[in-house]
Design brief:
Length: about 475
């Protein structure tokens, strides 16, 4: 007889049993606690004290901490406060009192507290009790009313010139290769007025006499740079923080995008909101005008796409660039504005031909990190990106479009922050903020750290901008709500 093929062995016979480990543990603990258990052979047969199986199990009570009342376990196994005792001989409002107690027992205590007392709670708690809360802000359906306020003396001077026009007598000649630039040493002015942190700053692209700032308080402001350096106009059109802002190439308009999922185009002079855009109800992280046509606007959105609008075509989306796998962080035009670079959280860099929705170059390496900020060098031959491995990487912007590994700038700590990058007007220096509030300056040719300043005391130095005409003026902004001018 073949013992291997049979259940009969030299020591006896073996019967196959199908029982899971968790089932065995359950029956073991039941037998230890109540004196009976289910027979492993199957069926309804019990082993041990069969009478104990027919008796109801005692229900344990547990304290909910401190002097809280005892709780009981309902038929669903959920611990709830023990109902109050009701006297059957009470007055005629007995039924109403019973209904009130039943509702209090059924409603979770945490949800009731968050709803009644209007306490602060995180997004996870909000989703759990969304059916109890009133409707959220109208940000998901309609934008808030756009408002503006002028803080200057007059919209036009005695010659009828707009307040946005510069005083040409105050301006320096344009800085070029023949002019030298200098590293600033000290803070000479602080711009105050935003209620919360300032996310980005942009100078007027031609003369730099005006400065645009976007803040987490949902507003954007235009500041005077040369005269008394005060706020000239406030633009309020976002229900939540403003993520990015940019001037058109002539400064007559600018665009802002916020966490309320709306992108707006403003008239700089009048303060009117010319266009209100929301691409498929998605949030935009960056906006940029096409340099050759201010009526073409591009925006990188949270659904991994880049949207392009023609503002003359009834605010319709005329093109989509859809190859990224995560939200798009930056859009930068290169190569005489014929192409643009896009970066995203997927750690990939795409080079696109304008108006062609297929990338012409795909840059992705295993060692690469996300590049949330990109800036074009004044010579237009290079562009630099703020890599989240605490470095600034450099790529060619003309023909080869490959990385220049010898031009990597290190020393700052920017991991986790999309700190801005700026160049001196002659391209000799590159500057960047970091997560500890410092402002770093490097020599672009040698990549050596030239100087570092403690720009902001609390929070990161999130943005910086070098004045296009003044050789030693650098502006910085941070989450402390301040904008500083360094000279």
């Amino acid at each position: 007889m073949d013992l291997k093929a049979s259940n009969v062995h030299a020591g006896g016979s073996v019967e196959r049993a199908a029982i899971e480990e968790w089932s065995f543990d359950e029956q073991y603990h039941t037998f230890q606690s109540f004196g009976y258990a289910q027979d492993a052979a199957g069926g309804q047969k019990l082993v041990g004290d069969g009478a104990a199986a027919d008796a109801p199990r005692p229900r344990a009570k547990r304290k909910r901490g401190g002097d809280a009342p005892l709780g009981t376990e309902d038929e669903h196994g959920v611990w709830a406060p023990e109902p109050e005792h009701i006297d059957e001989d009470a007055p005629e409002d007995l039924a109403a009192r019973k209904a009130e107690i039943a509702e209090a027992v059924a409603k979770p205590k945490s949800a009731t507290r968050a709803y009644d007392q209007n306490e602060d709670f995180d997004r996870r708690d909000e989703r759990k009790i969304s059916h109890l809360l009133p409707a959220r802000h109208d940000r998901d359906t309609t934008a808030i009313e756009a408002k503006h306020a002028f803080h200057g003396d007059a919209m036009r001077d005695y010659q009828g010139r707009s307040w946005t026009r510069p005083n040409l007598g105050e301006l320096r000649p344009k800085v070029d290769d023949d002019h030298d630039c200098f590293i600033p040493k000290r803070c000479v002015h602080k711009f105050t007025g935003h209620g919360k942190g300032v996310q980005c700053i942009k100078l007027h692209p031609t003369y730099g006499h005006l400065m645009l700032s976007a803040s987490m308080d949902g507003s954007a402001k235009i500041w005077d740079v040369y005269n008394d350096r005060r706020c000239l106009m406030t633009y309020a059109g976002h229900a939540e923080a403003v993520r990015d802002a940019t001037f058109s190439h002539d400064g007559s308009t600018f665009a802002t995008c916020g966490f309320d999922r709306f992108t707006r185009v403003w008239d700089t002079e009048t303060g009117a909101a010319l266009h209100t855009l929301t691409p498929n109800r998605k949030m935009c992280y960056c906006v940029d005008f096409y340099p050759r046509d201010d009526k073409i606007l591009l925006a990188g959105a949270s659904d991994n796409r880049i949207y392009q609008w023609d503002l003359r075509a009834n605010e319709e989306i005329v093109q989509e660039y859809n190859h990224h796998l995560q939200p798009v962080n930056s859009i930068t035009f290169i190569d005489d504005d014929r192409r643009f670079v896009s970066t995203a959280d997927d750690k990939k860099i795409f080079i696109w031909e304008h108006n062609i929705p297929v990338p012409m170059k795909y840059i992705s390496e295993p060692h690469m990190n996300a590049v949330p900020v990109v800036e074009l060098h004044p010579s237009t031959n290079f562009w630099c990106g703020q890599s989240l491995d605490n470095t600034i990487v450099t790529y060619g912007a003309r023909d080869k479009l490959k990385q220049m590994r010898k031009k990597t700038f290190k020393g700052h700590l920017n991991s986790g922050y999309s700190c801005g990058i700026t160049f001196s007007p002659n391209g000799k220096f590159i500057a960047s903020g970091d997560g500890e509030g410092k402002l770093f300056f490097w020599d672009f040719k040698t990549t050596r750290v030239y100087r570092k300043l403690q720009a902001h005391d609390s929070g990161p130095c999130i943005g910086c901008a070098w004045h296009p005409l003044e050789p030693s003026w650098v502006f910085t902004c941070g989450w402390d709500g301040l904008i500083k001018l360094w000279d």
